[in-house]
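Fold description:
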Amino acid sequence: MSIAGFIRLATYTAKAASGRRTPRHSNGLYSFRMSAPPTIATETPRPARRGRLRDFWHRVSEGRALDDLWSQFAADARHSYGFYEKDVDWETVEKLPAWRRPFHIARQFFWALMMKLSPARRVLLLVALALFVLSSLRVQLSTDIVLDAKFELLSAALLLLLLSLELADKVIMKRDLEIAREIQTWLVPSMPPDVPGGDIAFATRPQNSVAGDYYDAFYPTVGSAQGGKLLLIVADVAGKSVPAALLMATMQASLRTIAGEDAPLVDLVARLNRYASAYSLDGRRFTTAILAQYDPGSGRLEYVNAGHNPPVLRRADGSLEKLEAGGLPLGIESTAVYESAAVELRSGDAVIFYTDGVVEAFNSAGQEFGNPRWFETVRSLPQGSAQHSLEYLMWQLDVFVGATRQSDDITCLVFRCK
């Protein structure tokens, strides 16, 4: 084989292995110099690396700005501090000398953290901390012999293992809660019903994945949307998360069953109370609720307030009325007697139903939104649809609380008379 043939064969082999076709010269030979230009090899990886770093950061931060990430971290830190400080005996801390208090608080926080772990994971955490402390030891055995323990890597590996175990538990629980949340959304309306001469909007924000708040708006009798009475309800089960959500589900089922029998509003509430009393653990799992029936033909709204935050009736002229008539919360006393009251709604009037999570919402300084601020917000409600009114109320609440994580569910329902 000639030298030119050998060069041609070697170049073709290199081209086939690399998967890139190199430019031809007029003599038919492949040029080694042109097949792998050094400028391409040194310049293309740089923007690719920058792009990969941007993609990595976007995936980790979900595109959030640094200020937003810091606000979220601060809110989570305050929430975690509040969770662990419940186990601190602050009365004992106040009795200690000032110099001993930080050590006592740190010890109680440590035990609060430890007791949240399983026994095996407590041992794993103690071993990791012990190895970390031993890593700082340096013993001089002789002039030429020094014992220097290096357990940082092992300690970090154990802590990472512990973190992965806790994270796995959280992910599994979060997945189950998301399924429960999805089921819970089936129990409340996704769209408001059509109301002749009226307009409805509602919103809820669970403190956790599932909530103990309940809202509903429906016609109890099938096919009565053109002449029957509309039933409105907002309720709040004592407690939070899964236990409250389970009781909320049972209340929704019982309400739908009883309401379908076309019972008077007072009788409906009394029967709900007897049912709730049978499952309230001697009144410890009570439920506050406001139930109302709206007659589109007459504009009359009859209601019973079972120990709930009184809805606010905002008249078209800006005056406010509280709907307070009723009785005890559901589930406290099975023989409780309830009374009803009624108001006549006119064009431009709005009724605001809400749970205590609204007025008890707090900001980063620990200040509550409070009833006076809430009533003033309702008084300044602009004219418009129920959805527009709801967005205005929730916006005012958001401005006040900022990024502070709340400790209770927040639910609001707005009914406007056209």
